[in-house]
Design brief:
With 430 residues, the protein is of the alpha/beta class. It has an eight-stranded mixed beta barrel. Strands 10-11-12 form a three-stranded antiparallel sheet. β1, α2 and β2 form a beta-alpha-beta unit. α2 crosses α3 and α4 crosses α5. The termini are far apart.
């Protein structure tokens, strides 16, 4: 204790007041009660050993990305869910929302439900299903966006999911939504202070304190090679309460080869058959990695049958039809499509689609209508979309330089009306 500290302490005590001075560097960091994961962490899914080690470190649960809009299922979801369950973690799942009407909200909930079943999420035995509301092109009206979100939540409950929650940024929650009108209380909110302190969330909970995502660059000691994660503290117990699929201790899995197990059950263990089996269980882009094999093995050993749902559109690609005479590529309009969403899927613009299809009103397209795709886009439709997750301190100019593009292009791709971006926001990068 230096002489100045002693002097201040004595002076304060002489007035009958004692102040406790704790340097911010010594304040306890928040807990990583749970993390969220997707193919951004590892394209083929994270291995069982990773989940066993993070549970041993004190992390209780994970929230796995499963779907987005009505066109995407996360390719790592099935593996992440299977391996996290095997390690004894509480498993939750989330959907990234793009809805702009009550109908679209219902359609996205239906899509989420189908993909949850595909990847092995159990609505009665597993944890919460979460709608991630942060896309900047969502309705600017808090009343409308809150209404659409309530519609999504009601549809999930109608489909048999008893535990539904929302995730968004603290600013978004209090400005782009109407917390008092939401049918969900105690939400999961993100806010990244410079010096986060345990049990002192900087997120503003206007309708009950739920969970606080306090960082996007958390890493586990000894597991730095797995990269950084979003980490959250759980106050309401939604994400850390033990479920039927979780255990108090770390599950230890006996080492059994997938091929040997299949042979013991008189199953065809060939690579081609494993690809077919993996696909039926929602393990997309199967390549025989250890994490994929362990996940597939767990599904086979559990005796769970593949979900009887449509697994089309499961990859990060857009399917099209081709007219062999003209070599022109077309897109067939589906129920619920909008021209802006089609343009986003095909990596083109609304103006180009209007031009090549002689469309006068962008708001009027018909189900089963065949839209010509601009030729400059027709040769690269199978390329995956690339997204960037905004970190604290980022700005559009910095991101543009990193990806050799321009601020104007990033704003156009993400329908941004200003240069304002938020931590944890996902930006599409061409």
């Amino acid at each position: 204790m230096n002489k100045w500290f002693k002097y201040i302490f004595i002076l304060a005590f002489s007035f009958g007041v004692v102040f406790l001075f704790i340097p911010s560097s010594l304040a306890e960091k928040p807990d990583a009660d749970f993390i969220d994961v997707s193919h951004h962490n590892r394209q083929s899914g994270l291995p069982l050993a990773f989940y066993q080690m993070i549970k041993n470190s004190g992390t209780i649960s994970v929230v796995v990305k499963v779907s987005e809009g009505t066109y995407h299922v996360d390719p790592a979801a099935s593996v992440n869910i299977a391996n996290a369950k095997q390690a004894g973690l509480v498993v939750n799942a989330y959907h990234f929302a793009h809805y702009n009407s009550h109908l679209k909200a219902k359609l996205e909930a239906d899509w989420f439900d189908k993909k949850l079943r595909l990847v092995g999420f159990n609505k009665t035995k597993d944890g919460y299903v979460v709608v991630d509301i942060e896309a900047m092109n969502l309705s600017q009206s808090p009343k409308k966006l809150t209404g659409y979100t309530n519609t999504f939540i009601k549809e999930m409950k109608r489909l048999g999911y008893p535990k539904v929650d929302i995730y968004t940024g603290s600013y978004f929650y209090n400005n782009r939504l109407d917390p008092e009108s939401l049918i969900i209380t105690k939400p999961w909110l993100a806010s990244y202070p410079k010096n986060p302190i345990k049990n002192k969330p900087t997120a503003i909970f206007s309708h009950g304190k739920g969970a606080w995502q306090w960082t996007s660059d958390y890493y586990f000691l000894g597991l730095k090679n797995y990269g950084n994660f979003d980490a959250s503290e759980d106050y309401a117990g939604k994400y850390t309460k033990q479920t039927q699929s979780s255990t108090k201790g770390v599950k230890q899995i006996k080492t059994v080869s997938l091929v040997n197990y299949m042979k013991s059950k008189n199953m065809n263990p060939s690579y081609n058959n494993r690809v077919k089996l993996a696909k039926s269980y929602g393990i997309i882009n199967y390549s025989g990695t250890a994490s994929q094999n362990i996940a597939l093995l767990s599904k086979l050993k559990s005796g769970v049958k593949p979900a009887k749902v449509n697994i089309s559109n499961s990859k990060l690609t857009t399917k099209t039809t081709t007219n062999s005479k003209t070599k022109q590529t077309f897109y067939k309009v589906k129920f619920g499509d909008t021209l802006s969403e089609i343009a986003s899927k095909l990596r083109t613009t609304v103006s180009k689609l209007k031009s090549v299809n002689h469309i006068k009103n962008a708001n009027i397209i018909r189900i089963n209508q065949r839209l010509k795709i601009p030729r400059s886009n027709s040769t690269s439709l199978t390329t995956s979309k690339k997204y960037y997750k905004v970190n604290r301190g980022d700005y559009l100019g910095k991101i543009a330089i990193k990806y050799h593009t321009s601020v104007r292009k990033i704003k156009s791709l993400n329908s941004l009306k200003s240069d304002i971006i938020f931590p944890n926001q996902r930006l599409r990068i061409k």
